[in-house]
Amino acid sequence: MRPFLALLSADVRHFVRDRIALFWMLAFPILLMLLLGFVFGGDEEPVKLRLGVVLGGQGPAFQGLLEGLHHVPVISEVHTGTLEEELSALRARKRDGVLVVPADLPKALRAGNEVNFKLYYDASRSTTYQVLMSVIQEFLARSEEYLTRRERRFRLETEPVQVRHLRPIDYQVPGILAMALMQLGLFGAGGTLVARREGGVLRRFWAAPLSPGLFASSFIAHTLIVSLVQTALLLATAAAVFHVAVLGGYALLVGVVVLGALCFTALGYMIAAFARSAEASSALLQAINFPMMFLSGIFWPLEWMPGILRQVAWIFPLTYLGDALRQVMAGASPLVPLWLDAAVLGAWALIPALIATHFFRWE
Amino acid sequence: METVVAVRDLVKRYGELVAVGGISFEVKAGEIFGLLGPNGAGKTTTVECLEGLRVPDSGEIRVLGEIPSPGNRRLKARLGIQLQGTAFLPRLTVEETLKLFAALYPRHRPIDELLKLFALGEKKNTLVKDLSGGQRQRLAVALALVNDPELLVLDEPTTGLDPSARRALWDLISSLKSEGKTVLLTTHYMEEAEYLCNHVLILDRGRLIALGSPEDLVRKHFRETAVDLENPGPIAPENLRELPGVTRVVVAENKVTLYTTDVTTTVGALARMAEEGEISLGDLIWRRATLEDVYLLLTGRRLE
Question: Which residues of A touch B83 (CB under 8 A)?
Fold first, then answer.
């Protein structure tokens, strides 16, 4: 036990004094999360429409209509002006749409004729104009009802059925945590092992009466400690800045984090066992890191990717770690059941660990 | 005297290359034994086989009564090992490094004593990466002592040290002998072997070319005195061999060494040649023969 604790405390101290590793391993994932959170917006803003109105004339009918538009909750701004002014404002993206009220409005109302409104919109912003069109449609229908005193018989009641509303950040925080755990395992454990072998540090340990198992397990313990500290820092930041909570309970979370860290530490060790040099290992580690990072549904859902890439994602352990963390943290709908995530991660931990043990070299 | 290390017909190959080609020797308790030879002679391979870090292709080795192997941790616990070009965790301090290794062994010497012995007390809170080459080398040797070993195996312990640091380490290694420790060291400094070692084994390209105490080796190969001439000018070695008393002439680069049974006559003859302008005697030294001369004689090459 004494050699184990001595190695563990040496490794922790050695890591804490490495500012570059601290940045890339601990700070960088948090910064990435903050960046993504701010770019994609922590909370989805309710839609606000800025509407330009071109009035064909003056009088109570026009004023009444304008007044009515001011009372539509979705419309935050109502500007009036000439057609040229408002269209150039639309092109400058200062308006979401321009509504043209025809000059013959009062006359047509009195005569009971058709009134032709015209709506200009920015076709490049599909979600906005779809909302805009239905809002204006609804507004005109209501106005017509009011003016003609005809009542609608059909009424539509809407109710959301999604149990929990997932914001992008709720999806991304578990993903970034999964990525951070992967990189701690691959680079923090695997990369460090190769660097120590290359530098001749391992040889000196080998000359001491130290079993490879004890040596490896103390470093795995170190990696687990760093992984849990990383998890705590990342989640505390996510909770403070984006109000991201852990819905599934902390015990389950710690279990998934430990399993994920073990899985990627084993992978890192396997690469370390095979790589002939530091350069070779860093190339191999990156060759694992990048495809997994972008194809495992860490930053965006798997459904967004073309079919063939989605098939590839099912091989990667990161897909399952991300899925498990999203289930435990955000209560997201699972890709596969949690027990299957755990089983796949366990297999990805065990097989590389056996290979790494078999091919381990001290120098 | 008890035998601490016994090696018989040790052979180690790396692919085609024969690193060690069948050597045998014994190290007795309480002595300092030197493996001597140039880089690539097979010294490091030999000691790494003794430490159990390498497995020999054939031959028998006993160290402290044990057969060394990568898994023989009982033996490793009794050995004090300093590896050539070894490295430590760069962001641990000197004291932390000593404490870490102390914890890896069943017993250890007091850390403060080691810090004092190796003059590292002032540097105990310095990170290993900030040490000078000499300080790092002293730490490496201090670590070899951390487990209070029965046998120290030091691989080029003074390489990279300046002359005064080298002297200091020589004194330290000598003092280990008076503590009753057995030391096996490798070196490519003849002077170091001559100063420290009770017995030396001279290796050349994996072969044993001489074995014995430094005095015996010199006495066995030379009754002559050596005369070194540096930059003697264009002179044919045959002419020098004709000089009275001269038994051998060795030319290596700019240096000519004559071995003579009658130094006065030989130097007199050289002086006459110099008067005739046949030779330049700017740098002439005569001295008794050393291990270096033995090496030169046996291999035809200078060591450094």
Answer: 200, 203-204, 207
Same domain, B13 and B43: yes
Q: Quote the CA–CA distance of A190 and A184 in Å, as a whole number.
A: 9
Please give the residue of chain B at the shortest CA–CA distance from A18: B91
Question: Same domain, yes or no, for B9 and B131?
Answer: yes
Task: Count Cβ–Cβ pairs < 8 Å, chain A vs chain B.
Answer: 66
Number of domains in chain B: 2
Q: Is B294 among the domain residues?
A: no
Q: What is the dihedral of CA A244, A245, A248, A254, to 10 degrees?
A: 90
For A45-92, the pLDDT digits (tens) are 566 888 999 988 888 888 888 888 888 878 888 898 988 999 999 888
Within 8 A by CB and 6+ apart from B266, the residues are: B227, B243, B244, B245, B246, B258, B260
Query: Whole-angstrom Cα distance, residue B112 to residue A99?
Result: 87
Chain B contact set for A210 (CB, 8 A): 73, 104
pLDDT digit string, tens, across residues A214-270: 999 999 999 999 999 999 999 999 999 988 888 888 999 999 999 999 999 999 999
The reply to whether the predicted model has a pTM over 0.80 is: no
Q: Are residues B106 and B9 located together in one domain of the fold?
A: yes
- The distance of A181 to chain B (nearest Cα, Å) reads 24
- Here the CATH number for the domain that contains residue B99 is 3.40.50.300
Q: Are residues B210 and B109 in the same domain?
A: yes
Residue B248: domain span: 223-288
Q: How high is the pLDDT of residue B90?
A: 94
User: In the predicted model, what is the mean pLDDT of residues A336-351?
Assistant: 94
Kindly list the structural domains of chain A, giving each domain's residue range(s) and its CATH number in brackets, ordered by start: 2-42+167-359 (no CATH), 49-148 (3.40.1710.10)
A14: nearest Cα among A264, A188, A215: A188
Q: So what's the pLDDT on residue A297?
A: 84
Reported ipTM: 0.85
Task: Write out chain A residues lying below 8 Å of B48, CB-based.
Answer: none
Q: What is the pLDDT of residues B180-198, one digit of tens each?
A: 899 999 998 888 999 999 9
The Cα–Cα gap between A36 and A173 comes to 9
Give strand ranges (E) for A96-209: 97-101, 118-121
How close, in Å, is residue B68 to chain A by CA atoms?
11
Which residues of A fall below an 8 Å CB-CB distance to B?
2-3, 5-7, 10, 13-14, 17-18, 196, 199-201, 203-211, 362
Kindly determine whether residue A206 and residue B53, on different chains, have CB atoms separated by under 8 Å.
Answer: yes
Nearest CA in chain A to B90: A14
- Are A167 and A36 in contact by the 8 Å Cβ rule? The answer is no
